[in-house]
Amino acid sequence: EQRPVSGLVRLTCPYLVKAIDEWEGEGAIDDFNARLAQQEKWTRALSEATLEHRRIRTSLMTESDQEILRDRFGEANAKSFLDAGIAGMSPTKLNDVKCLHAQLADFLLRGDNCIGEAVAKELENRGTPVSGCAECSQQCDINSVETDASWRYSAQKNKQGLRETKVRRKALKSIQKAAQAQSSPVDGSAESTSTD
Hints:
196 residues; 60% helix
């Protein structure tokens, strides 16, 4: 079964993903959100990027695709999906940059994203050239022979997030089963009282 993904862009360069993972771990999202709160230009740009992502997403879907989405998820959820911005952001949530990976990916793709541009500049200032380095291409080049000295990156942030999501879902299912068991009679029959 296919699952729709609202994010249109994904940063796939392992070198940049690693640098942003580490930077986000140092609190970069909070820093960027503070800047977003102070710079109306960024808020406008985030709103405009959301509108552009909505336009692109809608243009990529046929009316039949949109009907399938509405049938599967309901009118309100389909609308939320179609209206989403960068990384699936709600069009009304303009106080959160959400994901620096997605902001940079959008900037690299469309060029018209001042938040993504700031991410690129700050990565450069931190010593991470957005164009990559001599070693990082080893992971992306299918002709590169891997050795013990080869540059490799294995994402940690997403693995941890997936583990946490799995634990939360398991706990939620247990709670739902317990609630269902409490609301159902043990023998499956309804009790009745008689006044005979």
